[in-house]
Design brief:
By secondary structure, the protein is an alpha+beta fold. It contains twelve helices and ten strands. The radius of gyration is 26 Å and the shape is elongated. The chain starts with a helix and ends with a helix.
Length: about 350
Amino acid sequence: MLSERRLEVLRAIVQDYVGTEEPVGSKALTERHRLGVSPATVRNDMAALEDEGYIAQPHTSAGRIPTDKGYRLFVDKLTAVKPMTGPERRAVQNFLEGAVDLDDVVGRTVRLLAQLTRQVAVVQYPSLTRSTVRHVELLSLAPARLMLVLITDTGRVEQRMIDCPAPFGESALADLRARLNSRVASRRFADVPQLVQDLPEAFDAEDRGTVATVLSTLLETLVEESEERLMIGGTANLTRFGHDFPLTIRPVLEALEEQVVLLKLLGEVGDSGMAVRIGHENAHEGLNSTSVVSVGYGSGGEAVAKLGVVGPTRMDYPGTMGAVRAVARYVGQILAES
């Protein structure tokens, strides 16, 4: 365990390096921070921090920079994230509240996160498997052709065309629509199969084939793999940090193009807490020079998806964590009110 004084020295090194982009020396530390000890003591503390792997000396520079281990301890010991200012909060709220549908909410969230943090923003669409059915609409397009529209509590809308095995009358369609919504509205997707399994038995024999086809289409919609959708923005921001990446940012850009990698980066949707993965804590080799800050968002206190940012390990962690948390909270509120 580090002493509180050495932890203060580490905090000062992280803050200065993030702010100046220059390796930090003991003289600069004593001039910029009220550490309450002599420069000689600071040098001894820096030597101890280096021995324990929290800071390192790049090249032949007299200064030191934090390592992944140093950033990890800095984040773990954060007493508070940096709150957004009143004008910032109002701007965020007004911008997100102008969204007209779920695609617009996600698109605005990506742009907002990228602008606030000046890093790469990644937003996952709400997961169908963690959503609740708001309404199921059935529309007749032809005597034996229907359209199924599934609307979720997060504002997501899924449409499917259904070719029926036989013509299906308007009265039977109205009956199916009413019975279906009475069973599944406001229920979790995971519960739907059990709730509708005996529904065909409530209809005449000639209509049961069509009812079964509608139910089959509905259930397929709930489990489609294509539900794992992401939106990414602000990739150009990485060019501002070119010297933060060894040799080139190309491995980072290539990793960000792979959706599977991004989904793993954000982590399991069920975890609504803040997650910060630093440098080599990221399993994908191309992202070993980056840090990822992510958090769950959703309505009703349960995460239905995640959002976050990717940037260099030399990151303003308190500010980035504060922005990511605040945006997630506002997105959750908008979904709850939609």
